[in-house]
Amino acid sequence: MQPNSLGLVAVYNQVHVESPSDPERVRELLAHVERVCPVKDTLRGVPTRAVEIRWFCPTLGTIKP
Q1: Half-sphere exposure of 29 (CA within 13 A, CB side)
Q2: How far apart are CA 20 and CA 32, in angstroms?
Q3: CB proximity list for 53: less than 8 A, separation 6 or greater
Q4: For the residues of 23-63, what is the DSSP string, one character each?
């Protein structure tokens, strides 16, 4: 990470479950969510990043970069 970077250095989460279900069923659900979570997959990898800027000036119209 570069000095003075504004990026994230860590992401933490907590899951609070209140359920009348059997604790083993709740554990199974949480394990399933952990396996298929797209946010987790994104944070573990390095997603491709792209920036597209479209500039519009009312007097000039669309200006291509």
Answers
A1: 11
A2: 19
A3: 65
A4: HHHHHHHHHHHHHH-HHHHHHHS---------EEETTTEEE
The number of distinct structural domains making up the chain is 1
Residues 36 and 40: their CA atoms lie apart, in Å, by 8
Q: What is the pLDDT of residue 37?
A: 86
Tell me the pTM: 0.50
The residue range of the domain holding 22 is 1-65
Cβ atoms 57, 63 nearer than 8 A: yes
Calculate ∠ Cα 8-38-5, nearest 5°: 10
pLDDT band at 65 (very low <50, low <70, confident <90, very high): low
pLDDT in tens, 32-56: 988 998 888 888 887 788 888 777 7
